[in-house]
Batch of 4 targets.
Target 1
Amino acid sequence: MGTPDFAEESLRALLEAGEDVAAVFTQPDKPRGRGMQESFSPVKTLAVERGIPVYQPAIFKDGAAPELLVVVAYGRILPQTFLDVAKYGSINVHGSLLPKYRGAAPIQWAVLNGDKTTGVSVQYMAAAMDAGDVIASRETEIGEFETSGELFDRLKTLGA
């Protein structure tokens, strides 16, 4: 489950590792760009290229249960009842060293606050935003003149 290119990198890593990705969930298509033409998210684009079924629900209801739910920058809070259906649980890749910078824009906050280091965390998902137990994390230095865009590109690879 994911939407932007930060999530696309993790999907690509799963596919390249030979993992069986049964389906992809991403935000509904939205108008983008100057012409406001409806376009696919980066995650949907990759899934379509690889022939993976794509689901874009506006709301979540009970349905078939996956073995593991992997969420990366999905862009919507998921109900606990949905997170609980996965046989082996639901995990999230987050662009900070949790618990620091829970919620939106963790990469931008690290740069704006002048942090020397940041990283990515993989955590079990819980009802509260970014509050689940951390399973693993990786730390990296932030360059003195590194922009949030440059750091974003590094962290999406580190997270994947």
Target 2
Amino acid sequence: KGPGIIIVLDDALVRKPEYEAKWQIIHDEDIRVILNDLKKAGAQAISINGERVVPMSEQLCAGPTIKINDNRYPVPYRIEAIGDPELLYESISLSRRVAEMTEFDIQVEIKKSKEIIIPKFSGSDKLEGYISGLEVIENENS
């Protein structure tokens, strides 16, 4: 737990015919770009809709939802990040992706918080599935 920011993302309330529908909804790539912006700004821990994001977490499009750590979540997406609230806020406020999203009426709310609690990783009981593709290499010097 610690200080940080909260970002709430939601699809455009009204679909405008002058924009393609795909530009008025949030996609997994939007989430990945925002997560990367947070990491570059020094975020120490991040969650999406209460799901802790770790290095092996994926954000995958699943129809009108996004799968995070194999759990499906609909909009709105609530991203919480622990770190310096000023740096995190500035990074997201100036994010090119956030500017693009708001241009197409996607709702973006960013606020600083004195205390954020990020839950533990929900997939810890399934770690074998996350690392099963890794190969063990014997070191001759061991």
Target 3
Amino acid sequence: ELKNLAALPRFLATARLDIGMAGIAVTPERAGEMVFSEPYVDETLAFVVKDHLREDFSRWGNIRDLGPAPVKVPNLPYYIEQIKRRAPRLKLELLENPNQIEADMKQGAFDALAMPAESGSVLTLLYPKYTVVVPEPEIVKIPLAYPVARRDQEWSYFINTWIELKRRDRTIDALYNHWILGKQAS
């Protein structure tokens, strides 16, 4: 049984899975292990911070000025590399259990968490003492795509064609606007 993303390359390589679904970030490490479809949307690297820290995280220069401030970060080397490149003195603390994020937010257990803005915006609706900040300049975009089994090029072509059709008929935009941006929600 697939319990974490670390096992996904093996499941795809051994034909136990044909495709990985639901927001899988394309990183150089992952691209070396799996074949990906064309990206269907980008995530934006951001920080979920307590409201009073909004300005401190609004610009990369401000973040560098924080020095060794503690920031929680998922165990994704590509995300960590992008943050370290822009703010090398931050004290990055790996999230041991991503399922613990909501409980930590409820308790106010951290000041800042690095994560995609699109995911963070949902959390800030549930925990309004936090806000999402996308530091400027140098907005970092990370593509999302579907990893597919290496052995099946026809399947990969089909997925790419499907993504392109959904992009052109604006289905992807409509879903993004509804589920990520909350537009047209009642």
Target 4
Amino acid sequence: MTVMENVPIGMVLTGPQVAYVPVPKAGCTSMLWTLADLQGEQFANRNASLEPETSRTMLVHDAALWQHTNTVEALTRAEVSAICDDEDWFVFTLTRHPVDRLFGAWGSKLLCREPTFVRRFEQQPWFPSKPSSHKDIVADFGRFVTALLDDPTLRRADRHWQPQLEIMHADWVRYTHIGRTDSYAATLTALQRHLQHRGRDGIVTERRENKALIGLANVSLPRRLIESIEQIYAEDMQQLGYKPRRLGPPTAPVSGPLLLALQAIIDRNERIGDLLELARRQ
């Protein structure tokens, strides 16, 4: 079988007839763990994974560890279309408000200096500094948003901030269900109904994995910055039905213990990056 280009990344559960296209920073780690539980994946050999993830939890993204599940990208475009046209299949994804998603991606991947992102982007003028205050975080995030505004190619430099409609291949993939992270339970309910229709007993296991250390509840973003993000992702906003984001004062501002925890994660990730670089030289 010839693997076709321009197909979405995702998992195909043949038995229960479920296909999932993960949108990074839209609950995808949690949903992948739910599907892994459904498939009985054990990931017994996960310690052997060479993927540059910074935790064992994140190794769920290593498709090579899935022993009982196929990947969408291993299919041809025609095969993906055939699944979408089959009413017995549940084809789904989850989306997130673009403002929340972008800050989540920037905070976890760039601000926390995950090794892959340090290697790829550290030399860029918008790469964040090590934060010592709330002001540093807001200023560095603002520089990244400005870079996205000025350089459309940067918007597609990584899937974690690529427009969601592009990741979903919404122009040709026909979804049974497009969920939202702010109503995550509704997606689990829809999946449960499908499984019951297929004669699968049991309850879908809800997993909450890869929790962010900081989010929009911890920062005070200028209104103009929020509007810029919504301009960058205008098509996602419109077609996915997201309204302009309204933010109040932060409920848990970045300071004190939270800032120390953030700095500790950065230190850990930098050390993991050191070890990965040493391994590459062997």
